[in-house]
């Protein structure tokens, strides 16, 4: 129901009403003085769920997770340039994931900016590298229309980051007007000129259909499975995916490996690669003496559909062109329950535990870094679930994204798999999980080191690392105590050191209403 009316209102009230009319009803907030009229408007205008966080990178990460699971944007409320700057890391991740986010950032009153007060900064300059759309409202009468434009920008496929600056006088001045929602922008078509080339390219095991974005939904994966069964091509997806549907009864798709040597080996057999919602494979970093382009020399790359285009239409056209509509899809996962593992925790044992305990319709948020590389093959036959990856590579994404996923899907269990180093970037998220009583079970893999960086030290050619270098990659002295940290923020927690205890602890967490943290010491 529309909230539009002729009641006199200030700019902040018109902002909240316009956001609600545009379908945006959730805000992750860490406000300051310049945002107080927005905060007050939340009382005057019913309908907006406002969730307090203790650090802005939690707010932006939660908005990322919300969009991935709700399919619509949430907004953040951030305090001036420094507040926005605190949230940049997870805005970077959201942008790379194609998540729609509307950032509302307070700004000094226009008359105050020229005084160069301590918190004055170039907010638009801070916002641009992590935003697709940036704008500053100039008056209370503009705020509603600007908010409608921000939501429209955030909804452009696959999803965009929109950042709207709200000077405090535009929030408190009267004259606010509610703006009507703007019509959605449809996804543009795939490259129809490339269709026949793509159909011809997918023939035999030396051809690859590489998927990303919306190609990883259940229905689109089934279509890809039909194409693979008919043509004999192989299926892979990108290493990092914003949302991947997995589990028994669904088409199995493995990822291009993250380690560069493994990726080169995995992609070496392919002479032709068709891209649907994916980019041509490149290395995460440059390494001495190793190629940045991961495909074999001479590989023919056909880009049929970008992630912003009509991915479902592209796969349907490929399926029709290959005459695969009535072909049973290849590689459908069968339900598999591994034997119960025992003994000390290691990646293979943890993978078996996960396959045994992932519940039907769960959401798995994966920031397990090095520990998690072994999880995919073993969990393919677990009950149906959704898997979320970090698409931007900036760590500290897992706990905030879990907040957003749980808010978007309160009827689904969320299982967050997080490395200890990553967890410390946004550990404040535990407080919000407890405050909102969100149904999230968290497993912190505590190996007491930045293990991925120890591997990267070798990858970049360093062979003579001494004690000072190794000390920079350790997480002991003192040892982090996640159980105590969680309990101090209102989250029930336990520590485990073996596979049997881990399985029991995850089962306990999943049966607990509200957040539950497990420190898994490797």
Automatic annotation (TrEMBL):
GO terms under biological process: small molecule metabolic process
Gene3D superfamilies: 3.40.50.970
Pfam family, one: TPP_enzyme_N
Domain Thiamine pyrophosphate enzyme TPP-binding intervals: 382-519
One Gene Ontology molecular-function label: thiamine pyrophosphate binding
Domain Thiamine pyrophosphate enzyme N-terminal TPP-binding: from-to ranges: 9-114
Keywords linked to the UniProt accession: Thiamine pyrophosphate, Transferase
PANTHER family the UniProt entry points to: ACETOLACTATE SYNTHASE LARGE SUBUNIT ILVX-RELATED, THIAMINE PYROPHOSPHATE ENZYMES
Family: Belongs to the TPP enzyme family.
Name of the molecule in the record: Acetolactate synthase-1/2/3 large subunit
Organism: Sulfitobacter marinus
